[in-house]
Write the structure tokens for this entry.
Amino acid sequence: MKFRRKPRENVEINLASLIDVVFILLLFFVVTTTFTRETQLKVDLPEAASGTPPEDTALKQMEVLIGADGSYSLNGQALLKSDLESLMAALGKESAGDNSLPLVISADAQTPHQAVITAMDAAGKLGFAHLRITTVEAEAAKP
């Protein structure tokens, strides 16, 4: 006795929905990922007993960050060399020759004094008159 076999159906997996789900997951991870700025210096500002809060200005403001190792960063862009000439060139390029812009120097508390003086010297040679050095307010001594 010979039984008839049913013809086999070709089994196919529909990949379109799988591809859609993978792309949605990819978009989710791209959107929710946080990116860190590697060029930004972490600066631990020195303390001061008194000071004035910065004024809000409509002018473009330039900020020189000086790391604990004496490396410079201008408006978030790290400078390749930490010398007077490269800092002056970067300040001149960023300000486009306008030395009336306010310049903020934010130096780490452990920064060598020479690095701060170099930044001030570069600003003075380019004619910047509005110079500010940032600090954090010291906490009052507890009795």
